[in-house]
Each structure stands twice: as C-alpha cells, then as structure tokens.
Amino acid sequence: MALCALPLMSCASTVDTSTVDRFDLNKYLGIWYEVARYDHSFERGMDNTMAQYILQDDGTVAVINSGWKDGKYDIAQGKAKYPDPSGAPGALKVSFFLFFYSEYNIMMVDENYQMSLVGSKRDNYLWILSRTPEPDPVLLDIMLKEAEERGYDIGQLIWVDQSRNK
C-alpha cells in the first residue's frame, strides 16, 4: 500500500490500474476460476474460488462468487454495472451490499477471453482469473508480467487451490 508523506495528503496508487482499451462484456460473461489473488479479509482462507457473471434484463450483471472455507461451501451474490457507459472500457462497479459499490478494473484480458487480470483503483487488490481451473501456463506468464510491469508485487500473490474444481 502506498505511504503518504503527510497525514492529510491523499495517497496516489503506486500501480497502473488502468483498464483495457477494448472490452466485450458478452465475451466476459460466464464462469472464471480464481488462479491467484492478493490477500484480503473477504476471501481470506478460501480456496476453490470462482466467479460467475450473468447478464440481467436491466443491463446489470449478476455476480456469484463461491468457494470453500474451513470445509464449508460459501456463496456471495452481488451485481455489477458500468458506472458510465461512455467511460473507460473494462471499468465496472461491483456491489455485494446494498448500494455500496467498489471498482472492478479489468486491466488485461487475452484476445480469446480465457484469462483476465483484475484490480481496483487501489493497489491492494489484484486477481488473476482463468476460464479453467488449470490456466494455460503461457497466458499465466503473460498476466504475471503485465501485473509486474504495472507495479504490482507478484510475490504477494496467494495461489488458489482449485483441486475441487478439476
């Protein structure tokens, strides 16, 4: 996390969190397996995590996150939307609680929408997602290099056990 020089100054992110130049939501829909992530409280201790994105009639996207923690299956249901359809491609807002939304920045996706690099406006969130529980090693290497070039410390990634999903 970025440190501020003075307590009252705002902290700028030390990483590049910009989104992809082009993004096709319809190609992004479906199931994604979490390959790696930064540690954070809402997924701490979870494995076999995955996300499913389903387009709704009102243009929002249902988000169903699931995984296992301490031998129990857990599901979180939320929604995603474009805050400004004319804004940056791949810049979504996601909510799992009432009207509180967080940034969901799709920073990289391969041309066939098989792997994705996702962050937030802050540098303490990072996910690598794959359409399969065992990602293509070439695409994984590309995602890791992209994250590193953007300023992320890939040594902090937690590698997610997907053995239940194989």
- Largest sheet at a glance? 8 strands, antiparallel, barrel
Spans of at least 5 consecutive residues with low confidence: 1-10
Shape: globular
What is the tally of beta strands?
9
Helix content: 10-25%
CATH architecture descriptor name: Beta Barrel
The CATH top-level class label: Mainly Beta
For the record, the count of structural domains works out to 1
CATH homologous superfamily placement = Calycin beta-barrel core domain
Order of strands, main sheet, comes to 1-2-3-4-5-6-7-8
Radius of gyration: 16 Å
Oligomer: single chain
Structural class: mainly beta
Order of SSEs, N→C?
HEEEEEEEEHE
How far is it from the N-terminal to the C-terminal residue, by CA?
Answer: 34 Å
Q: What would the average pLDDT be, to the nearest integer?
A: 88
What proportion strand?
35-45%
Mind explaining what this structure looks like?
The model is unreliable at 1-10 (pLDDT under 50). The protein has 2 helices and 9 strands. It has helices at 25-28, 137-149, and strands at 30-37, 47-55, 61-69, 72-81, 91-97, 100-109, 115-119, 126-130, 158-159. With 166 residues, it is mainly β. It has a single domain (25-165), classed as Beta Barrel (Lipocalin). It has an 8-stranded antiparallel β-barrel with strand order 1-2-3-4-5-6-7-8.
